[in-house]
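Schema walkthrough. Field components (list of strings):
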Amino acid sequence: MLQPALPPPIRETGFAFWLKRNLFSNWWNSLISLASLVIIVYTLISLLRWMVFEAHWEIVWQNLRLFATYRYPTELLWRPMSCVALILFLFGLSAGVGKGGIGQIVFKAFYWLMGFCLAITLISLFLFPSVRWLWLIAIIAGFAGYSLAKFWPNVAMYLSILWGLSWFVCLFLMLGFSGESGPMQYVSPGMWGGIQLTFFLSVTGIALAFPLGIALALGRQSKLPAIKYFCITYIEIIRGAPLITWLFTASLLLPLFLGGIRPEALIRAQVAIILFAAAYMAENVRGGLQAIPKGQREAAHALGLTPWDSMRLIVLPQALRAVIPAIVGLFIGLFKDTSLVTIVGLHDLFAVVLGVANQPEAKQIPGGIVRELFIVMSLFYWFFCYRMSVASKQLEKELGLGTR
Amino acid sequence: MRKLFVLLASLTLVLSATAFAQSTLDQIKSRGSLICGVNGTGLPGFAYVDSDGNYQGFDVDYCRAVAAAVLGDATKVTYRGLSSGERFTALQTGEVDILIRNTTWTSSRDTGLGLNFTAPTFYDGQGFMVRAASGIETLADLDGTTICVQSGTTTELNLADVMNANGLDYDAKIAETSDPLLAAYDDGACDAYTTDKSGLAAQRTQLRDPSEHVIMDVTISKEPLGPSVRHGDDQFYDVANWVVFTTFMAEEMGITSANVDEMLVGSADSNVRRLLGVEPEKVEEFGLSADAFYNVIKQVGNYAEIYNRNLGPETVVNIPRGYNASYLNGGLHYAPPLR
Amino acid sequence: MAVKPSQELVPWYRNVKTIAIVAQLVFVALIILLVTILVLNVMKGVKTLGVNTGFGFLNNRAGFPISESVIPYSEDNTYVRALIVGILNTLKVALLGIVLATLLGISVALMRLSNNWVLRQISTIYIETVRNIPLVVQIFFFATVLFIPNLPSGVAALRLGNLYLNNSSGLITPWPYFSNNFWLWLPWLAIALALAIAAHIFRNRHLKKIERPGNPLWLSLPVFLLVAVIGYLIALAGSKYPEHLTVSADVDRGRVFSFIDENANGVFDQNAEKIAAKVPVLLEFDELTLEVNPQRRTEQKANIRSAFAFPRLKKNEYGEVEHQFVNADKTSDLRLHFFEFPSYGVVYKDQNGNGRFDAGENVPEGEDGYEGKDYSLQMIVKGFKRRVVTDNYGETRSLSVETATEPKLTLLGASPMVMSYPYFPTERTQIAGGTIFTIPYLALLFALTFYTASFIAEIVRGAILSVAKGQTEAAKALGLSSGQTFNLVVFPQALRIITPPLISQYLNLTKNSSLGIFAAYQEFYAVSSIVNNQSGAAMPVFVILIGGYMVISLTFSFALNWYNAKNQLVER
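Field assembly_structure (string):
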């Protein structure tokens, strides 16, 4: 007599099982899942319908140039675009020479940045004939950098110098000489704006806050009370008040402190951002310094290194390496916070968006075009911040932090 | 850290204009451009950045007019978009030469903040918007209507004052902010909507069908807007003031940017000849070149041209002239004689 | 020979101690030099630019309105008061924001750890979206994109029970106010607090002695509640309508005359008329000269708000609502008639017919608050006189009110606390009563909450995940349910990890409230910025602004760090 066959084991793989475990494990889970799905689908459909049929995207398209560079003269757009090309080139180099886990992270960042630029290039190919070649060149520069690094890996040695130099080159390119006309005429920072300004303020902010922050962190650890308490006071005062108050201060009082000399609004805001970021940078670096075991310093001392050398050669490199993710986090924060310069009359992306909403053409649309502008602006910020936060998390993993 | 200071110091020196010592007029001439403070985030009709990146608007045209008078070229303006929080400080510290940023002339700004206002270029004031089909034209027609008014502002009190003074009855529909109120008006909840005229113009464009609504030719409060300069530099104050008067005079005399060249050679009127610098001494007394006011009219236009270009019936904004007509047409704009 | 070797070997300029002192001296000298240069520059600037540097201006009239305030404020108040209003507004949004962000943050963290795929995805998307978009943009979203265009306006408000929501006022909720009988309850509250503290300390010691785990709050909290409730009931029994009420009207502002109480309830002024309580009122006068110009609706409107709902209103034979006013010495009485005015509410006239309005509807009878003692809040208008001034054009212009005493109004009632409910006075006006959370406030609060919660969620999730898995397994092995495991084993351990980063998030939220200016919420920064703009005193405003934020930050930081230190695991 034949035994009846045993029922097959419950499948623990496959779509049905996945559904059961993740969506319908019990009755209230099923209820939550279904309700959320209905709400999500409904929202998405109405959003899509609005985006396709009702939204007035034409004003966003017409003002893309303002979003990118605000009032930077059209005939000189090749100058900021050269900066883009230079940065893509250097990024390509860095991505090309990178090895190991960190190399992977840099490559991914490069990959996404190129993707973003490629999308812009495609748009400009159809819509903006004045810059389409410039964008193509920038893209090519990116690929060129990457290929060059593959052929000539030794370039890695010069990368940090090149990056440092590129800041000066970009500043020079965007500013130009003093002069009324010609290809290298002076373009006042008052004409800068949009995404260009957002990047400039945040990159310059983090770059210059870096040395200042290290100095403050070392000062805070110093055994000399005068220096130590000065640094503590500075750090705590700056961190005690929000960035917006420091921008206000720099905008209104810096001319007074300088005896009537009036730096450009951009410089005033930039100084505020640097001094503000430095205090936070100092706290990050201090965290790194404290994480270095005391034995390291003692070993350096035993080897006959002076305290200065042991700090410079042993402690700081390790500490800084450990705080890279924190610095990326700080940069993300700064990148978002640059939107506050609206308050001191600068025109970063956020300010430009507010301005575009006040154009007469925008006012002709019932209800204005705030939703459209909001979506475009949010997508831009989100893309960059999200990619950076992903990179930061990967770096953290790679550097062996945050895991126990 | 030292590098940073050196860098900052050098940047500061490169990019900043120095010295309080020079007179504003000399500074502008030696710099070769006028730094004009305008509305940074934009006010439709008055100042905004168009999609080509150029500043446009009524206030902006007055920046251009001053530049045309001082430098002979209306394009030589460096615009500085200012937030409302920093506008006065920017003028005080000399960051801008002149502030033309929809700023109301009040006594406390004259005295407390060290500003000098020129003749107002735009008499703003509370007005009413009604449906064109309603037939409401005068204040008396508003008797027994429902009026949408923003609460917590002088607007509401002005309305109550003027209606009571005229013995008119009305119902007020009030809200804290303008947007919902405008929506209520658009939905037909009110017969009229009241706020400052420049605001009315901008808000009308957001209605479903702006052409169905008109701004009444009634003004019930005082909001004189005009350029302001620093206290204590009388020479530049005179220049700014007379640039404004030039635009008035040109309208009074019928000089436009189109016919100014004919007038220059053809006019026998000594008023016109003095204004256009054919008889140069009166204009030169300002420390300007003889053709300064000619340049204003040639490059920017007379008041009517400036008004119609930015706020006139052809534009989106479309504010009736009202008090802003020349005194010849019953308005308030009146230039003292140039002699 | 007698020279010590150390001095021999190390010359003074290489002695570490000397170098340290010299280095510090040089450093201090440099700082002093820098400060001197800056101060000299400022002094030079003060001369050339005429910038205001003294603090004397703070006592000047502010002259600008603030759209919402926790304490009474009008533009006739001083700059100091304006700044205090700003700080209070900052605290108002920051404190509620901290509570809400914590709750939302923990919920999102738990969602992200749940076994429901949809919830996990929603929380992940929420976190990754919100934390990667600037806060300013999100404030812009809530204020300009979401609330104002999408909410109904005015009387079309969304309604849920006694909650109303519209885009002209905001969220209107019922709100309790102190009455004159509050002092009857106050000692009970004090006793309750003292007993609770005593119970807390006692229980704590006891628990330590018997070496049992437990939270002393489980004893002290019920003690507090019990005593407070009993006290309230006793106070309620003793509550009565007062003999004398200390209410006066606001002095002349040229046009408006207003009643202000310390809770900003019953205020009428042009900035805050929305805060009118739905409370019956008794007005008593020492002396009242009513010279209301029938043409000047503004004054009537002022009165209406204050005289809004009188107790035991009754209709007279003409269908008008009438109430008797008694002056303080009860020697004479003054009859005022009431009727409802379409757009404003109740309007009164005196027996001589002054202040009468022609148009009007009757006060709805029997509606809450118009009758009965329960809602009684009373006020006395004490000794004020209104004077009509004739202006140059022969018209009666600015009416002034002369008060015998400083204008002040206390809300009174026959219970220690009085609940004020929102309602529409008439079909077409704004909501009165209750309290209002304005749209700018809500926009800022929502943005701060959502933004900060996304960071808190990640902190909480990280902390929960960091609790070693063995702990959970051990708890399971002991037979604890998963709920118990979380509440008793995992969460208490995670809490210690959470606290320090949470403190820094709270401080961030508080500082970020300064972005309220982008939603037109007038908190400390926004007010300071206006003060600077009005007074031209950049330097003092800077000191106050930075100082104010420092004080707020340091207070928060000390309080939270004290809590943290108290709750950290003592390592042995």
